[in-house]
Design goal:
mainly beta; five-stranded antiparallel beta sheet
Length: 102
């Protein structure tokens, strides 16, 4: 649900729908490796800026490791690929990555 609080703005309502499946590949007391697949279905109204108008399929790989002393490393890598929709030819493949210490 997206809500824009500006007065007289028509940009509020439901956006695109995402469905995700995740699974743990490896897990121990000090590390884990998981993967996930995501599909984004263009259900939001493009004219009201609530949706992208493109079906996207993504795959992700995530890693977590306990470094000791209450510090852990989190990292992920993934890609989102446009597969359908009115503006598929204009959409680009998105590469996702990130890392964090906590």
């Amino acid at each position: 649900m997206y809500v824009n609080t500006e007065e007289h703005d028509q940009h509020s309502g439901f956006g695109d729908t995402k469905v995700a499946l995740r699974t743990m590949l490896l897990e121990s007391h000090n590390f884990s490796l998981s993967t996930g697949s995501v599909i984004s279905i263009p259900t939001g109204d493009e004219e009201r800026k609530l949706g992208e108008g493109v079906t996207m399929v993504g795959q992700q790989l995530a890693f977590w490791m306990d470094l000791g002393h209450r510090i852990s490393l989190h990292t992920f890598l993934g890609a989102d690929v446009p597969t359908g929709g009115k503006h598929r030819e204009d959409a680009e493949v998105d590469f996702l990555y990130g890392t964090a210490l906590s």
